[in-house]
Design brief:
5 helices, 8 strands, globular, six-stranded mixed sheet, alpha/beta, Glutaredoxin
C-alpha cells in the first residue's frame, strides 16, 4: 500500500494564523463586553474619580417657569443630577428611588432633575403623580443635555464642588444609588 503525504505549504500556515487571530479577537470582544456590562450594571460599581468641571447651566424650573435652577446650586455641595423625561419608562421606574433618597438624606445631598426634550404638561403631571419634591429644571430644547454629552435618558451624574465625579448610565436602582452614594460621597443611606 502506498502512503500519500500531503505537503502543507505557506498558505496552510497563513490560514491557521488567520483562524487563530479571529478566535483570539472574538474572545477578547466577549471578555471586554462582559467586563463593561458588569461595570455599568451597577452590581459591582467601582468608583472612578473623573474630577471634570461640570458644564454651567441655568434653566427655568419645571413647575414655575419664572424661577430658575442653575449650576450655582452645585457649588460646594454633593449633587445628584438626573436627566429624565416623562415619556421614558426607565426614567419613570427610577424616579421613586431618587425621591426616597432625597427625602431620607435631606441636606446631605442636593438632588436636581433635568427634564429634557419633553412636554412641560406631561412632565409636571408625572412629577405630581410620583410626588417629586426636589427641584427640576426644564430643558425644552436639550441644550443642557447636549452640554453634558448625554448618551440617553435616564443618566445620572454624581458631583461635588461643581465637578463631575461619576456617571450612572441607564436607570438607577435602589442598590446602585446606595453604591454610588457610599462610594462617591461616603454616605450610607438606610431607609
Amino acid at each position: 500500500m502506498a502512503r500519500y503525504s500531503v505537503e502543507r505549504g505557506p498558505h496552510h500556515r497563513r490560514r491557521r494564523v488567520v483562524r487563530y487571530g479571529l478566535i483570539a479577537t472574538v474572545l477578547a470582544l466577549i471578555i471586554t463586553s462582559v467586563v463593561f456590562a458588569d461595570r455599568y450594571s451597577g452590581t459591582n460599581h467601582e468608583f472612578i474619580a473623573m474630577n471634570v468641571p461640570a458644564p454651567q447651566f441655568a434653566l427655568p424650573t419645571l413647575v414655575r417657569s419664572s424661577t430658575r435652577v442653575s449650576s450655582q446650586l452645585l457649588e460646594g455641595r454633593a449633587v445628584v443630577l438626573n436627566f429624565w423625561a416623562s415619556w421614558c419608562p426607565p426614567c419613570q421606574a427610577e424616579m421613586p428611588t431618587l425621591e426616597a433618597a432625597h427625602r431620607a438624606l435631606g441636606n446631605q445631598v442636593t438632588f436636581i432633575g433635568i427634564d429634557e426634550r419633553d412636554s412641560r404638561a406631561a412632565a409636571i403631571a408625572f412629577t405630581r403623580q410620583v410626588r417629586v419634591t426636589y427641584v427640576n429644571g426644564f430643558d425644552a430644547n436639550g441644550s443642557v443635555a447636549q452640554a453634558y454629552l448625554l448618551s440617553g435618558t435616564p443618566e445620572t451624574y454624581f458631583m461635588s464642588y461643581g465637578k463631575e465625579l461619576d456617571i450612572s448610565l441607564g436607570p438607577v436602582t435602589d442598590a446602585t444609588l446606595r453604591s454610588y452614594l457610599k462610594e462617591v460621597f461616603g454616605i450610607r443611606w438606610s431607609p
